User: What shape does this take?
Amino acid sequence: MSDAERTGLHIRERTTTRTARYVVLGAAPAQARRVWFVLHGYGMLAARFVRPFDGIIPPDTCIVAPEALSRFYLESPRADGGHQQRVGAAWLTRESRETEIADAHAWLTRVYDEVMSEAQADGAPAPQVAILAFSQGVATAMRWVASAQVHPTWFVAWAGGLAHDVDREGFVSAMRDGEIVMVTGTADHFATDAARDAAQSALQSIGLEPRILSFSGGHHLDASLLQSMLESFGTPGHGTHP
Assistant: This one.
């Protein structure tokens, strides 16, 4: 028996309107041939997450970074208010999990539709789409792709893997014509070698063969590898391979 059943507590959920935000960097969508939707990890903000992209974005590329809906202080409360200096965001928690997943999907889809509509204004051809997700953002991005809202040419799982509740069939269908790239740092204490191997095996078990890349570093984006990806994605003579 749950706590709610024991106490007679009734939890009611209602949809409400709130303001969310996303960051656009590089070419404007209307001038872009390639659009990357990039999802940050736990405790990050979109504007901070895109800093490694600054100065390395090709002229025809647009970077779009939606920010998760739940923001919070990263440090425990202190009497002097010092904990209010650093703020992060999260895609979901275990509390009301399914609702948070649905809200995240709706938000990501709204951003995607808005950007792609702007990119195809005046009859312009649709740009190539890639998704790069980092850490906690990987599971969120995979669930979103599996929900058939977007079919990227590239899916980059950086320091993350296949979440246990991703719709396998939906994800395989969405990535049938795309490529999956897994990236880990050699000193990443979260995305360890064992975690990477397990994530690779999980993808292989559903018929997907990811390309494995690594860099010398920890739990962060590596600017050099990132630049190589941005430059090679969809360029003539290079296909979509990093």
The two ends are 52 Å apart (CA to CA). Confidence is low (pLDDT under 50) at residues 236-240. The longest helix spans residues 97-119. The chain has one domain: 3-232.
